[in-house]
Design a protein that fits this description.
The chain has helices spanning 15-19, 45-54, 66-73, 92-106, 122-136, 141-154, 165-169, 207-221, 238-249, 264-270, and strands spanning 3-8, 23-26, 29-32, 35-38, 60-62, 79-84, 111-116, 157-160, 186-192, 198-205, 229-234, 256-261, 275-278. By secondary structure, it is of the alpha/beta class.
Length: 279
Amino acid sequence: MEYVIVMDSCGERTEQMRQDERVIPAPLTMQLDDYSFVDDDTFDQQDFLRKVAASPNCPKSACPSPQFYKEAFERAKKRAYAVTLSAELSGSYNSAVLAKEMAREERPDMQIHVFNSRSASIGQTLITRKIQECEAAGMAFDELVEAVESYIDEQNTYFVLESLEALRKNGRLSNVKAFLATALKIKPVMASTPEGSIIQLDQARGINRALVKMVDYITERVEKPEERFLAISHCNCPARAEMVRDAILERIRVKGVILLDTGGISTLYASDGGIIVVI
């Protein structure tokens, strides 16, 4: 293969990506009590959610090893790219960077770039799609890297979750003030910063009201929506995701829409009923 794109498994693959051998998933792993889960095609979301609901403990995740990334990079003849979840949220980016250095020691002529998505989940999907688009257009390596990094700069990630417990217990909310509003069913509207950490934009009583506020933020802030793809991932709630999609499309016109269910790592952090939107 002339090139490969190694996307860590926090990113959801479209059906087209699943059929493309150049798109290689790098599986993260999860541990809950005595159970181990690999975030690959064997992952059973319903079984995982049942075990999470039955346990008093929070699952822990581990990123792919540098050796996995290195071996994946070496499947390419000339060019390799990695797309990882935000370096602010995981060690996956650092693991891929180390693998790049290892691979370049053996093949100094190989062109490798690691993209820090500064997002997660469906945001990584859009970045991988952009790389495919640029490769299909015949862009030179440096030109492609510049174009994709610029694309990442322009991306915006938003989400509303039923529960923040997995993020909180795994230390992913360092910049967000803790609030105790479970009894009032207060749901925060969250977003990523330009650096890829998590911030709270707003909150509402009940998830439907929080989703309405999220739609407001998305449609009021987006620039040139007709040139953008709207991407939505959901954790076990397709009807809710479709409702959010339709509410956004009533207010703005976009280039296209991608709607996917979450994989393992996104399921861990989004929790049952969570919605993630990237545009």
